[in-house]
Amino acid sequence: MYTLMELLLVGTVALLIGAFLGWALSKLLDREHRSERAAEKQLEQATANLKSYRREVSNHYVKTAQLVDELTESYRQLHNHLAHGSTTLLDIRGRPLMKTIPSREQIEAISQPATPLIVSPPLDYAPKTTPREKGMLDESFGLESARKQDQGSDDFSDIYPAAHMPPPNPKKHQR
Fold first, then answer.
1. Is-contact 87 100, C-beta < 8 A?
2. Among 64, 74, 80, 111, which has the highest number of CB atoms less than 10 A from its own CB?
3. What is the pLDDT of residues 99-130, one digit of tens each?
């Protein structure tokens, strides 16, 4: 059988092999975790960069809108200055050469009506004058004149104008 020394030697060797395999496995798994952590860091960094970029773009357009408004106001002031000068400095009778441009507040005051306009959708039927009157969607709408014709004469000239015409003269077309 096995001696105590052999059993201790085999146990020590197995312990050393197990420790080495555990160490190697932990290093291998740690590399995978490190690459996952690195990918997560890159994703967080890219998200932060995108948010920063969006903020910069938004700020850029806000600033651009402000500058365009200022430029528009400057042009309006320049035009009004030239219009005022042309009417006061030039000796022109009749119409002025240039008219002044109203300010934004004046334009907004003109474009907004004092009372709100009430808009209703278009009617897709003929409105009734009395509640008992038949509407346009009724099956018998417009058939009153046909009923009168059935009761009276056979003259359908109001419904079919060609029905009241005299028959053609056959002698007129013969030679």
1. no
2. 80
3. 888 888 887 777 776 677 777 766 656 667 77
Of 125, 123, 147, 121, give the one whose Cα is nearest residue 134: 125
Tokens of 9: 């030697």
* Global confidence as pTM: 0.41
Percent pLDDT > 90 in the chain is: 29
Going 17 to 23 to 27 to 29, the CA torsion angle's sign is positive
Rounded CA-CA distance 147/134 in Å is 15
Distance CA 111, CA 103 (A): 12
The rounded Cα 140 to chain-centroid distance in angstroms is: 44
Q: Mean pLDDT lowest for which of 44-48, 57-61, 134-138, 167-171?
A: 167-171
| Overall residue count recorded for the chain in this entry | 175
Residue that the structure tokens 């009153």 belong to: 144
Residue 75 to residues 10, 97, 99, 102, 147: CA-CA distances in angstroms? 96, 17, 14, 12, 73
Structure tokens at 69: 């408004």
